[in-house]
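Side project, low priority. Logging it here so it doesn't get lost.
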Amino acid sequence: MVGRVGVVLAGLAGLLVVVLVVGLAAVAVSVRRAVPDRSGEAALVGLQADVDVVRDAQGVPHVYADTAEDLFRAQGYVHAQDRFFEMDVRRHITAGRLSELVGADEQALEADVVVRTLGWRRTAEAELELLDPVTVTYLEAYAEGVNAYLRERSPGQLSLAYTVLSLQLPEAEIEPWTPVDSLAWLKALAWDLRSNYSDELGRGLLLARGETPARVDQLYPAYPGTNPVIVPDEVLASGVSGRAVRPPPGSAAPGPAADPEAALAAVGGPGEQALADTLAVLSAGGDLTGVAVEGLGSNSWVVSGEHTDTGAPLLANDPHLAPSSPSTWYQVGLHCRRVSEECPFDVSGFSFSGLPGVFVGRTPDVAWGLTTLYADHTDFVLERVVGEEYELDGEMLPLTVREEVVEVAGGDPVTVEVRETGNGPLLSDVVDPLVSIGRGIPVPSGSPTRGPGYAVSLRWTASDPGRTMAAVLAMNRATSAEEVVEAARLLDVPGQNIVFAETGQDGAIGYVTPSRVPVRAAGDGRVPLPGWTSAYDWVGYVPAEDLPVVVDPERGWLVTANNRVQTVGSGPYLGVDTDHGYRAARLETELAALVERGDVTADEMAELQLDDVNPLAETLLPYLLDVDGLDAFTTDGVDLLRDWDGSQDRDSAAAAYFNAVWAELLAGAFHDELPLELHPNGGSRWFTVVDQLLGSPDDPWWDDVATVNVVESRDEVLRQALVEARLRLTRQVAKDPGRWSWGQVHTLTPQHTPLGGEAVPGPVRSLFNLSTVGLPGGSSVVDATSWDASSGTFEVTAVPSMRMVVDLSVPEDPADVGGSRWVDLTGVSGHPTDRYHGNQLGTWADGGSYPWAFTPEALDEVARERLVLRADD
């Protein structure tokens, strides 16, 4: 069945093997044709006045216009210049039209069917009707700018990728861009950040295999009480002195827990393979933004001026996403030449190609950073369906039915009937494993008969139209902390933590939790629940004004790193499956030390982003060093750990060995009893799992059930992990441990989608992919270059996709950027032969960054190219 859409696109790559045989010459001729002109003049139909696009040394465009509409027209134009193929692939995926690009490919068709069933584009269409007229005007202006660039260019002039595709498939037909194309991308973002649904199904898989609830809880443990929450009780309780708002629990608190039978209502019965397939199928559309990968997360923190060297706040942010080429983000500046009510934008930061505005960045007055909230936004629901009706509280209600036609390039169209209950679409109609779940899952006593089987629907906050686009643009014109909070409350999905800071010596700092968070009548959202009774319904959303907001906390700083927002019971119920807080704990410790010393600098903020200490080392090392009975060959490796401080820099041999031991430990303890899909990835949850098991040397999880008449203990698993890790690095690197280094095995090769996969011939991959780099850091490390311990390699699966530090001081010289700096994983361009393609990777990999020019005077110092977009006479 369907895996991640990234996998589906890799299938597309298989169609391109013929490139070297029949079309290498055509590719060679076209290699420079799509690289845009970024200097001189160009006409842009629809402009009200000329627009200047000034690019700095990294190729980042800064747009200067007289009207807001012209500003967004020009942004659409430059996005299309640099990234249109990426934009086009995104809109085909989010519309469920991937088959129109790749033809009769089974995985592509299945992905289209799932996305159509979820109705992303339908929701985006409804969202357009919900938005205010000004936001719609900006979306339309952006689309006009995109289309102005497309109008007189063939596909091959837009991207070399189209030329490569045309060697096997009919030449792509480029459709005009629309506002709905932009809004649909927000649905993809929300899907990738949908929180605990994999954990929900994972718990079910374990119980279906006969695990007891107690053993399942061992693998999905509670958030460690020793790790920090974002908004401690003392901050919420600080009252007027901290200008904090304590959200009342009220109706936002979780409802009564489900009885034990109901808690098992959707977690057993169908068999291992069906549930495993379900985990894969429901990831369709999952790797769209580069978010839905193991090891994802983000760091963001802010320090008030009372603790900094300038007396003004400092803010840092580095979102952790899947690596790609080009990267997820697109740096841009959007500047009204004269800021006014009619043209209120003067903003710079990180955007998404395909959408107007800046998602993370700064204005002259405020800066903000984002991390994922991980509130629980989804529930799976069992439904009793009879014919075209479903049961609710003893009454049969009609299903909502619609037809979707999926066009297939070179094949016959496929018609899909989508059925929905009040909870959402019946995914079991299009995902076979969910049929098995409905047939075999245990339910509470007194439940209606299942007949041939229960159907399974999905309740998801993003299925309801929202105002996220309005929130983004409101943030872009914010001039104060109060306006940041007001703008954030418009953000429905995806759920985010936002830290912010105001400019100047008295600039406020703060935190706000914007998200559409469901209030459940019963249960806590950890497992699917019966849908034939309203006892488990969502009864609304937590009011935005009841979500945590903190301004100027007494201690003068705030940290978010995907950790729990507040202690249980101190605010509205947000969910349970957050990151386990080890990055947050490290940041809190290091930042507290900087604040205690005083005069925190922007350089120290940037250095903290590169902290590579593994928080697991302090816990695990004493146990590893206490293992006895090792041979001399293995001891050569163990000796590396004796004086190791836990730092995972690129040159560290100890880091290479420790991480190899970690992977082998997880395999030895858990692979024998867990299905492949649930093998430990080694992230923060597994830190907690192993930390708790280390104190129980005879816990059954240590035992290898495959061995006969032998019961393994903790020390045997640790001993074997040390031995196997020594052998693994000997095979992979060298026999001499002195020749090992973490950067040799912990590597990253940003790949183009869909032309960068292994199915594509090497010369084509080398053209579209970027160079391989060895990296420091690791999973659940502040420098979060994560890897999957179950994959058999140490290759990087998630990275700090960008890094930014914003200095909110006001220099005397407007050309002085102060301490503000930024860097992107790859760069702005998606054209493989462009000088701005991958031009930031080396600096990023080395932990460097570039001065962030914001004012016109500062930009003049670094400007390299200037394009004048002429108004249509």
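Brief comment: The chain is about 35% helix and 15% strand.
Revisit when time allows.
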